[in-house]
Amino acid sequence: MMHPFVLTKEFENSLKKLDKNQQRLILRRMDKILQMPELGKPLHAPMQNYRSERIEVFRIIYSQKGDTIYFAFLEHRKTAYRF
Length: 83
What we know:
- The protein is α+β, with helices and mostly antiparallel strands.
- Helix content is 29%, strand content 33%.
- The protein is built from two helices and five strands; from the N terminus they run βααββββ.
- It is globular and about 30 Å long.
């Protein structure tokens, strides 16, 4: 089952900055997350409502509210957990 999803403006902007090959990898992983939202690793406080999924050196930070998946951040692993 594919869940509905929302992309934050920050996520969209980060995705646009990547090259086509990296974008393709990210989009494939997003499809997997939409099919199985528990795929990502649960994060600790202060990001306890989010999960993180790794793709090479990037991290997709997302949350689930009801049936909807919110893709919040797409970051390099060095800056992904800066909160």
